[in-house]
Amino acid sequence: MFNTAKMALLAALFAGVAGPVFAADLVEPPVVEEAPPPVAYEPPADFGGWYIRGDIDYHKSDLRGIDYITYGPPPGSNVFDSGELKGGFSLGAGIGYKINDHFRTDLTADYWFASDFNGSTNDGVTTSVEVSKMSALLLLANAYYDIGTWHGITPYVGAGIGGAHVKWDTVHDPNTTETNPGSKNWRFAYALMAGASYCLTDRVILDAGYRYSHIEGGRMFDFDVSSSGPGFDHGINTHEVRGGLRYQFGGNNGCTSPEPYVPEPEPIYTK
């Protein structure tokens, strides 16, 4: 009987000591260590994108000189004593592609509305007044360098090369019946430009700047039996003040910076 009581006491003591130990092993939850702070990752900026543009300008053109041929006395080549083109307006449109955050290129077409021409000639005896009008279609392939963007403003420089279809109206002296049919022809042209753009929205950009364009010389008017001719201008230098809008269809136009990507942290469990 003594042995039985002794064994029961030992069993109770063992259960009282071992029970909490096993229970602690079974109930204790895992320790969760705090994840390290996430590292912000900024994906590559998507700058490439097609855009369209529309422009309006006021321009002033300078003629580099005019000469013409005479067949009566005195024969040979003669020059206009004066020749001036008045200022005029133009409308333009184009399509382009922004390559990256600094380079873009486009194709543009600008129609120059007719500008009045006033000139004079002198045959040694009398002075004749000559009047006409000149209009042109200027087609250019352009490339630009966007210097950088500060507070939504991006200054740029650029250059273009292409051709111009120049059309001269009839050249005539309003005081006489002498007339010469105007000529129209294609000529080589190039341009240099500088300006700045401003972000109106993430897609619409206001563009303002200056463009210098040069059109090579060519035939200005043809021969007429009532007068002399033909006549040739020596080229046209044009100074333009331009303004317009660009609309970009895709990519980052430089107006907004892409938001950094922050990955979701994953918890780390340890026993």
TrEMBL record:
UniProt keyword terms in alphabetical order: Signal
Source domain of life: Bacteria
Domain Outer membrane protein beta-barrel: start-end pairs: 46-249
Signal peptide start-end: 1-23
Short name of one Pfam family: OMP_b-brl
InterPro entries associated with the record: Beta-barrel_OMP (IPR027385), OMP/PagP_B-barrel (IPR011250)
Designated name of the protein: Porin family protein
Organism lineage string: Bacteria, Pseudomonadati, Pseudomonadota, Alphaproteobacteria, Hyphomicrobiales
